[in-house]
Design brief:
about 15% strand; six-stranded mixed barrel; six-stranded mixed beta barrel; alpha+beta; single chain; about 850 residues
Length: about 850
């Protein structure tokens, strides 16, 4: 007898739903047999059969799809009913998964926005940042001088365009609203061409800076246009007052535009270099970007620009003897410092998700022990193992879906919390922070994570449960076997190890933060109110009048009740801002140049800040503009100059012909990060060169934030047109500084992940032991009846629980050392193998595990042997 083509028959059988498979194949086989019996050749009958199979396949696929959708909906509905019947199991599983998915989706969303999502420019990966370096030390100056910028722009062969930019601030004067200081950016003419950004309204800035006496013009950011000018459509041509100068608005930037290197800027202006900036090749003050020509790589552009930099050695050997250029992609310039931190946080969040998955896998494995009879009956009634396996996975999906939804909600809350807790100075320098939320990409990531997690934690329990047979059920076997209990213990090992890794990471970061905050900034940070002052330049252009006003201002502030002292400096410490320069000591035969930060301070500044005079004299009232130029240096600068600098005269290139006598040495104060090397600082007296922009340092008797109002009122009494901004206590400046915030945020996030993982691990361990006690209740009762002591029973349960904990601790300790080394640059004064941290974490985790063991052990020792033997 001729048989139907085997391959075609198997294909159709595989596609058809189980319920229709037998009927369809039987009809097709009978028709095939009838054709063969009427005399058709085997080849003709086989060809007919294959044609019928091909015609039936589309309908079979559609039918199978409908059946699978119906099966999935039915299984999900049944799974939801099971969850309602066991609310404790359902709530535990949903919350566990929500914690893992929420943490992962939040951190991945943040990392995706900062590291992956394109910047809002045309072909952003073709934009490079041009940075000069010293080839001998690779110390970056980051910015360029005006002559250097023009040489690079003119002589390069790899960039289609190059543009410069620099930051600053201007006082915006609005009728009836007083004066307000705004952050601004000043750019060269082709800046927006390099970025490939067209204005939302009006025109972009061009070469407005070139003609002398050109009418002042400006562009607004979209946010500034909407908040300050009510999105006035007739804004073009309107004049605003910036630093007492009428300035015409010529354009508004698009809403999506942002430029993180100057993220806080509200107004964009053409750059107007001063005569000194134009002429001095050594005066670095402007950052630069360029767009790569088609087909040119970043490395080729860097080599081309470096060639130009090396040619400067012959033109200016003093300042450019070892000049070189780096040209990283602009995004790398922006996010390079935070990339390692975000990668570490992403890895930590994934560890939390793994802990959650291991926990839920253990819960499902324990839950499966209660369904042996049900699954055996289903199997006897004809459900194959593959069908049971699909049903169980669908039930697990019923647990995963609400966990995923809640995780997305939790993740969105975490994102808002992350953004809200970022200091503004940090937030505006990262891409896409203003609009950060769970967007389409993040939702897709969350859905993929949810599906992957449900598959990961559901496969093994579903496979184990689907293998249940009727024989096991009729034997009365309830609960997990030895193999499954060992598997649950393995899940506990994983959870303990990962929790230990996260706890050690949080502990190392806490140690680093504590030791960083122990670093003395060189002055008293308590009870210190600070703010920045911008005076109207038109009324305070005369140096004598300006110096007189500053004295009057200081006296007025010191008369405010609660103010112990007030002083002035051009740049506050710990802000990382300010000018620098290099000087030579008169009489130095080697003409040795020393690089230093340069500050202008009032005579009483060091007293107000609590900085000790170590040698020489302080600034005096006699240090007037007509008196010989004097300076103070800090201890770090004095130690860098060969011999004693006290009493020596020095010369700065930017002050040609002026001899400056060093009259005193003061203690060190930090202007940059607390974890950076102590800077060398030289102080000029404000009285010899007063500036209309300066910062106030005000020592208060009580809470400095409570003194802000009286201080501002006192200043307004002197001149209501004075713009005050950046009001903050020094303690808040320390807390918001990049080095402190980065470690504090990482510590908080990893610490939160660690606590969540610890709780999940403890719950998992408790679940294993509770299952053991439940399954061994009869055995425990028999042992107690035969004379076993309850202490022995309790010790056995505790020992059973602590074995996986001990193994997890061992694995976690090894892994935590690797994780500690990955923290790398985030650690300060702390080793990745810090014994104190490791010991405390192991002790804390062991104590938590012991508590999780004691509860089931107490239940075991309370077993009544009489009741067990009577009803067991």
């Amino acid at each position: 007898m001729i048989a139907p083509p085997r391959l075609a028959r198997r294909l159709l059988a595989w596609v058809l739903p189980h319920a229709h498979r037998a009927v369809v194949l039987t009809d097709l086989d009978e028709e095939f047999a009838a054709r063969a019996s009427t005399g058709a050749s085997a080849a003709d009958a086989s060809r007919w059969y294959r044609r019928q199979v091909l015609r039936s396949l589309p309908g079979a696929v559609r039918m199978r799809g409908r059946f699978q959708v119906a099966d999935l909906a039915r299984d999900l509905k049944y799974g939801a009913r099971l969850l309602r019947r066991k609310p404790t199991f359902a709530v535990t599983g949903v919350l566990t998964l929500a914690i893992g998915i929420g943490a992962t989706s939040a951190v991945i969303t943040l990392a995706n926005a900062v590291l992956v999502r394109p910047l809002p420019y045309t072909d952003p990966d073709r934009i490079v940042s041009v940075m000069e370096i010293d080839r001998t030390s690779e110390a970056r100056s980051d910015n360029l001088s005006w002559p250097d910028f023009n040489d690079y722009a003119r002589e390069n062969q790899t960039l289609t365009a190059m543009a410069g930019y620099t930051g600053g601030s201007r006082t915006l004067t609005v009728d009836g609203a007083g004066a307000e200081r705004l952050p601004v950016v000043m750019v060269t003419g082709r800046f927006f061409d390099v970025l490939g950004v067209a204005p939302g309204i009006g025109r972009a800035l061009n070469d407005d800076y070139l003609p002398d006496g050109a009418p002042p013009v400006a562009m607004l950011t979209d946010a500034s246009w909407r908040t300050r000018f009510g999105a006035d459509p007739s804004i073009l041509g309107r004049r605003i007052i910036l630093n007492d100068v009428p300035t015409t608005i010529v354009g508004v930037l698009p809403a999506a535009f942002e430029f993180p290197p100057r993220g806080a800027a509200e107004v964009w202006l053409p750059v107007h270099p001063s005569k000194g900036q134009i002429e001095r090749k050594f005066y670095h003050w402007m950052d630069a970007v360029g767009r790569l020509k088609p087909g040119v790589t970043r490395a080729q552009a860097e080599s081309d620009l470096d060639r130009i930099a090396r040619s400067f050695a012959s033109l200016d050997p003093r300042a450019h003897q070892h000049s070189g250029v780096l040209a990283p992609i602009l995004r790398e310039r922006i996010v390079g410092d935070v990339r390692p931190t975000l990668m570490i946080l992403s890895g930590a969040s994934l560890l939390v998700l793994l802990v959650a998955c291991a926990n839920i896998a253990g819960l499902l494995l324990a839950h499966s022990a209660t369904r042996t009879s049900e699954i055996a009956v289903r199997s006897v009634m004809g459900a194959g193992r593959s069908r049971l396996f699909r049903q169980l996975l669908a039930e697990n999906l019923a647990l995963a879906l609400p966990g995923g939804v809640l995780g997305v909600i939790l993740g969105q809350g975490m994102i808002r919390g992350l953004v809200a807790t970022m200091p503004p100075a940090q937030r505006v320098t990262l891409p896409h922070m203003a609009s950060l939320s769970l967007d389409g990409q993040a939702l897709i990531i969350s859905l993929v994570v949810t599906a992957s997690a449900s598959l990961l934690f559901g496969l093994l329990p579903a496979w184990r449960t689907a293998r249940t047979d009727l024989l096991q059920s009729t034997r009365g076997v309830a609960g997990l076997g030895a193999r499954e209990l060992r598997l649950q213990s393995a899940f506990v090992v994983i959870q303990v190890a990962l929790a230990l890794v996260l706890l050690v990471g949080a502990g190392l970061m806490a140690q680093s933060l504590r030791r960083l905050l122990d670093v003395s900034p060189g002055f008293r940070t308590d009870h210190l109110l600070t703010m920045t002052v911008a005076l109207p330049q038109g009324r305070y252009s005369d140096p004598a009048a300006l110096a007189n006003f500053q004295r009057t201002l200081t006296e007025r502030l010191e008369a405010v009740p609660g103010v112990l002292g007030a002083s002035l400096i051009d740049q506050l410490p710990l802000t990382g801002a300010g000018n620098s320069g290099s000087f030579t000591v008169m009489g130095d035969v080697d003409a040795h140049e020393t690089v230093t930060l340069v500050r202008d301070a009032a005579a009483n500044y060091f007293d107000v800040m609590g900085i000790r005079l170590e040698a020489g004299r302080p600034f005096a009232e006699t240090d007037t503009p007509s008196a010989p130029q004097v300076a103070l240096v800090n201890r770090a600068l004095a130690e860098r100059v060969p011999g004693s600098i006290l009493g020596k005269r020095i010369v700065f290139p930017f002050m040609p012909g002026q001899l400056i006598e060093v009259v005193g040495i003061v203690g060190n104060e930090r202007y940059g990060a607390l974890d950076a090397e102590q800077e060398a600082v030289l102080y000029f007296p404000q009285s010899q060169g007063p500036d209309s922009n300066f910062s106030l340092a005000i020592r208060t008797a009580g809470d400095p934030s409570g003194m802000s109002g009286p201080v501002v009122a006192a200043i307004a009494e002197l001149d209501p047109a004075i713009a005050l901004y950046q009001r903050a206590s020094m303690e808040s400046i320390v807390a918001a500084s990049e080095s402190v915030f980065r470690r504090r945020s990482v510590m908080a996030l990893i610490g939160g992940f660690a606590i969540a993982s610890l709780l999940l691990a403890v719950v998992g361990l408790y679940g294993v032991l509770a299952q053991v006690v439940a399954q061994r209740t009869r055995e425990i009762g028999v042992r107690v009846a035969l004379g076993a002591g309850r202490a022995t029973i309790a010790f056995g349960i505790v020992r059973r629980g602590l074995w996986p904990v001990a193994i997890g601790l061992g694995i976690g300790l090894v892994t935590s050392v690797v994780f500690g080394r990955l923290l790398g640059g985030l650690l300060f004064g702390t080793s990745a193998t810090d014994v104190v941290t490791l010991s405390l974490v192991v002790a804390a985790l062991s104590a938590a595990a012991l508590v999780a063991c004691i509860i089931p052990a107490r239940r075991a020792v309370r077993v009544d042997p009489v009741e067990v033997l009577r009803f067991g």
